[in-house]
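Re: your question about DUF420 domain-containing protein

S., sorry for the slow reply, the queue was backed up all week. Below is exactly what I fed in.
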Amino acid sequence: MEFVPRERVRPLAAVLSVVSLAVVFAAAGGRIPPSTVPAAPEWVLALIPHVNVVISATAIGTIAVGWRAIRRGAVGRHRIAMLASFGLFATFLVLYLYRLVATGGPQPFPGPDPVYQFVYIPVLVVHVLLAVVCIPVLYYALLLAAAYSVDELPRTNHARLGRIAAALWLVSFSLGIVVYLLLHAVY
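Result:
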């Protein structure tokens, strides 16, 4: 069953990517005023990073389940796992952006300067770059799955792009957990 018109897959993926990345960069750059989001108690804002690390770890698991399922030919299980992964990613992003806007920007690194320069920043940069690159690939792979039947998908770029998106997703989520550990556990 076709949920997305086939001729609209690329433009829709492009529009979703541009809008998503614009919102992320606007929030990270402090361009969205805190008054645009509902106020939350401090304990809720403090809890979000801990919830997000659980979401990240769960997403790593669902991506791995989806990857394994498709390699075994279990298309239905693959679809459920990848949609769950996307739902977890969306939930993570909403919570992360909410906290970012509500608190007025990214959390400062509390550790020593050498760790900041030589560990935290490189890990964060790679994490962010992979997440940025992943967005359009992910949207395109998901929209292909929505536009074509299971029998038609092998004739599209869905499998190739899905492998790329899953790999980027896995590494990005993993590095996000490292960032969390540096911000909230180690320091």
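The domain at 6-186 is CATH 1.20.120 (Four Helix Bundle (Hemerythrin (Met), subunit A)). The helical segments are 9-28, 42-71, 75-103, 113-147, 158-186.

Happy to talk it through on Thursday.
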